[in-house]
Amino acid sequence: xxxTDKKRSTAEDIEYSIRKKFHKNIFSRFAxxxxxxxxxxxxxxxxxxxxxxxxxxxMAKCFQELQxxxxxxxxxxxxxxxxxxxxxxxxxxEQNAQIMDIPLxxxxxxxxxxxxxxxxxxxYLCARMRRGYLYSKAAExxxxxxxxxxxxxxxxxxxxMGMLYSGxxxxxxxxxxxxxxxxxxxxxxxxxxxxxxxxxxxxxHALHFLQCACHFTDQCANSDIAEITSKRQExxxxxxxxKEKNPFIEGNLFKSVENVNLDTIIAYKQNKKxxxxxxxxxxxxx
Length: 286
Fold this sequence. Notes:
With 286 residues, this protein is α/β, with parallel strands linked by helices. The chain has helices spanning 10-19, 23-36, 54-68, 87-100, 111-115, 122-140, 152-165, 195-204, 224-245, 249-256, 281-284; strands at 45-49, 75-82, 104-108, 145-147, 175-177, 185-187, 267-270, 273-276. Helix 7 packs across helix 9 (224-245). The longest helix is centred in the last third of the chain and has 22 residues, at 224-245. It is globular and about 75 Å long.
């Protein structure tokens, strides 16, 4: 790790690396997503949602860096929801935040307890409840946006998983309006940042983040938790194997949902309404 004549703190080293060593692959892509997808506007107050994993913690540091060089005024609050973490996991989040100089705002819920005895789709229910609590608490703090740490690999894996396991073409959007919280918006600023670059940044600083803090994963090997994890891992491995033969696979998957030609699509949905090519087939060739 590089040092100047005046020894830097770990937090300062992390910030320096984002500006220098990892500027091209991390911060530039973070800033590009902000600009290309118009994720920030003047006067925004953003709840940066931190789960304790590598992605959300890096996102927090990128936001801090962006705020130092901001072209317009916006505010940040670094929001952590404790859904019932074990003590060690909660402490790990707090310790990492202290090391990285991220001022946390933590609130507690009992989501893990609430879904513990749910047999059907506990992961889905847990995710919905977590998102709802984050929106609600963010609104209490006067925020109009919540930021989540999904990255480029999450996007392309979601595209391929939808095709292979759900029979549909869809993607993880860079931003979404909330349907239940008026005036609230979800944004994903790491949308263009590759997971391998996040891992390199993590390992360069010898940081240790939470992997999965859900206390069901150790005991639910045959549940939908394991199935979802397995499907995503299978998809990740498939992309890796395809990339060995074609280095453009990742980029092509990402671009596939930007270059949709509706003239060659059998059917699609828009605003919950289904459209079929036969609806206008004869009109195009009378």
